[in-house]
Amino acid sequence: MTVRAREEFVKPASGREDAVMEVKNLKVHFQLDEGLLKAVDGVDLTIRRGRTLGIVGESGCGKSVTSQALLRIVPASGKVEGEILLYPSDRSKIDGIDIPDGDPVDLVGLDGKGRTIRSIRGGEIAMIFQEPMKAFSPIHTIGDQIMEAILLHKTANRKEAYDIALETLRKVGMSNPEQRMDEYPHQLSGGMRQRAMIAMALSCEPSILIADEPTTALDVTVQAQVLQLINELRDHTGTSVIFITHDLGVIAEMSDEVAVMYLGKVVEYTDVDTLFYGPKHPYTKALLNSIPSVARRDRLESIEGTVPFPMNLPPGCGFYSRCPLAEDGVCNAGDIPLREIARGHRVRCVKAEQV
Ligand SMILES: Nc1ncnc2c1ncn2[C@@H]1O[C@H](COP(=O)(O)OP(=O)(O)OP(=O)(O)O)[C@@H](O)[C@H]1O
């Protein structure tokens, strides 16, 4: 194993004992012909052991690009800056660098194609997404594909890899797991394919599972089963989950803490109960007012206007043009900082106290 100069990647521990990952001032900017597109623009997140962080926001707010950055799979045209500090659960899984106990690895400093990040992807951080066919090759069996991940990250022994794959399929509630091992992705139903993808992601016992809209394409009953499965697996394995969705109903079901994103920035960050019962950003409030509910008798409100395109934006709050509390000269004068208005509750709004 080549030991690279550790100061390049390994940062001193910050003392946050339950953090498995800390994201600090993350930026992903795309230089396009028309200008600089700030897809992610100064995001801070803390992923805690065994907990779920929900990331919610309308289409285009930067949720997926944030998750791509965490895995270092942003397309080459995107420039990634800031820090993504991973506190590995199992240092032996990480190839190519020597990390002293307790210190994190800064993923931004790693070569995006190097063996260290390749051992972290799948080994320490795994991802599931909306369309399982993207995760599976159509020409190999489910068993072979799950085993391939295990052989890469966990063991070189094929028999052992087979047993782990089978056991993981059992854990995710797959019917007839032995038979499924020999089947091809197209032979499975949508819900089963989703379970198989979750099994592949969890087979190497990652410390973080990133779920990007994993149930959007499923019907309501199967969606509920898959969400419940992710929660159960998190509780049994202690894996942390980053759950990305535009659906606040799913956020309520899944999250311990929630980051609300708007135009590449986190605008509100708090625990799930405070988000639903005491939101302090006008955008969060507007999102909550737009969720349909069986119990609601009042009229559903839609959010006025559309999300601006994250390029050549005017100074000040990104929600200014749509906000009922917007005040000229105050909200559009300069950058609005994310400030802590109560313990663990951060809001990017100068009018938060009036919401
Ligand atoms: N490869 C890319 N090159 C240029 N711009 C990109 C690229 N990928 C994403 N973007 C832009 O970055 C912004 C954030 O996109 P992102 O996909 O993260 O949004 P999202 O919140 O996940 O939306 P959705 O819910 O629709 O997936 C958008 O304006 C998008 O057009």
TrEMBL record:
NCBIfam families for this protein: oligo_HPY (TIGR01727)
Q: What is this protein's name?
A: Dipeptide/oligopeptide/nickel ABC transporter ATP-binding protein
Task: Give the family per the record.
Answer: Belongs to the ABC transporter superfamily.
**Keyword list, A-Z:** ATP-binding, Cell inner membrane, Cell membrane, Membrane, Nucleotide-binding, Translocase, Transport
- What's the main place this protein lives? membrane
The species this protein belongs to is Paenibacillus cisolokensis
Q: Where in the cell is it found?
A: Cell membrane
Q: Which GO terms describe its molecular function?
A: ATP binding
Q: Which positions carry the signal peptide feature in this UniProt record? A: none
Q: How does it sit in the membrane?
A: Peripheral membrane protein
Q: For the ABC transporter domain, which residue ranges apply?
A: 23-288
Q: Which Pfam families match?
A: ABC_tran, oligo_HPY
